[in-house]
C-alpha cells in the first residue's frame, strides 16, 4: 500500500494547529496548566500503596506500642499522609486522618476531571478541523474552471484532512483522556487502601471522637453523624 498520498503537511497543520488553538482559546490558563501536569504525571512513577505502608509502618508501631501521647510525626515524603498523620497525632483522633484524606482526594479528583474534560473537548474539535481542511481544499480550486489535476488535489486534501481529524481525535486525544482518568482512579484506589490499612491498625489506639477544650474550660464532645 502506498502511504505517500496520506502525508500532507498542510492538512496536518490545519488539524493539529487548529485543534490546539481552539482548545487554548476555549480553556483558561488554569485548565491548560492542570492538563499539562496530568499528562506529565502519566510518565511519573506510579503510586505504590505498599511503599507508603512501609514508610508509615514505623510510626504505626510506635503509636501502638507507646500510645499517641508520646508519638511524634514522621514525614515519609507524601504530602497527604504527612499532613494526615500530623493532624491525627496532634488531635489524638483517627478522624483528622480521614478528613485530610477526603480533602486531598477531592482536590486530586477535581484536577483530574479538569484535565479529562479539556482533553475530551480537544478530541471533539479534531474532526471539526478535519472538515475545516475540506473547506480549505475546496477553496483552492481555480475560479476559471476545474481541471482534473486541481480536482484530484482538492479531493485528496479533503480526504486527508478528514482522516487526520478522526485519527488525531480517536487515536491520541481521546485515549489520553482515558489514560489520565484511569491513572487518577488507580492512585485513589491505592491511597484508599493505605487509609483503610492505617485506620485498621490505629483504631484500637485512637478514639473516633475528639473532645476539644472550650474557652470556659468545659469539655464538649464532637459528634459525627
UniProtKB/TrEMBL annotation:
Residues 109-189 form the MotA/TolQ/ExbB proton channel domain. One of its GO terms (cellular component) is plasma membrane. It is a multi-pass membrane protein. It comes from the Bacteria. InterPro entries: MotA-like, MotA_ExbB_proton_chnl. This is Chemotaxis protein MotA. Keywords: Cell membrane, Membrane, Protein transport, Transmembrane, Transmembrane helix, Transport. It is found in: Cell membrane; Membrane. The keyword Transport applies. Belongs to the exbB/tolQ family. GO terms for biological process: bacterial-type flagellum-dependent swarming motility; chemotaxis; protein transport. The chain crosses the membrane at residues 114-138, 150-173. It comes from Novosphingobium hassiacum. The keyword rRNA processing does not apply.
Amino acid at each position: 500500500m502506498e502511504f505517500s498520498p496520506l502525508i500532507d503537511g498542510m492538512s496536518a497543520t490545519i488539524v493539529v494547529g487548529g485543534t490546539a488553538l481552539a482548545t487554548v482559546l476555549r480553556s483558561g490558563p488554569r485548565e491548560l496548566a492542570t492538563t499539562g501536569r496530568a499528562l506529565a504525571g502519566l510518565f511519573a512513577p506510579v503510586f505504590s500503596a505498599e511503599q507508603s505502608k512501609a514508610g508509615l509502618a514505623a510510626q504505626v508501631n510506635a503509636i501502638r506500642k507507646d500510645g499517641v501521647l508520646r508519638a511524634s510525626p514522621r514525614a515519609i515524603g507524601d504530602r497527604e499522609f504527612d499532613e494526615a498523620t500530623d493532624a491525627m497525632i496532634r488531635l489524638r483522633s483517627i478522624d483528622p486522618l480521614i478528613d485530610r484524606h477526603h480533602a486531598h482526594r477531592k482536590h486530586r479528583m477535581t484536577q483530574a476531571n479538569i484535565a479529562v474534560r479539556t482533553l475530551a473537548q480537544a478530541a471533539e474539535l479534531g474532526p471539526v478541523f478535519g472538515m475545516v481542511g475540506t473547506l480549505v481544499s475546496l477553496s483552492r480550486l481555480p475560479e476559471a474552471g476545474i481541471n482534473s489535476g486541481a480536482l484530484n488535489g482538492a479531493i485528496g486534501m479533503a480526504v486527508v484532512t478528514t482522516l487526520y481529524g478522526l485519527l488525531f481525535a480517536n487515536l491520541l486525544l481521546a485515549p489520553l483522556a482515558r489514560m489520565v482518568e484511569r491513572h487518577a482512579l488507580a492512585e485513589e484506589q491505592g491511597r484508599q487502601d493505605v487509609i483503610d490499612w492505617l485506620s485498621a491498625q490505629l483504631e484500637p489506639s485512637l478514639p473516633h471522637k475528639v473532645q476539644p477544650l472550650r474557652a470556659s474550660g468545659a469539655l464538649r464532645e464532637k459528634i459525627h453523624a
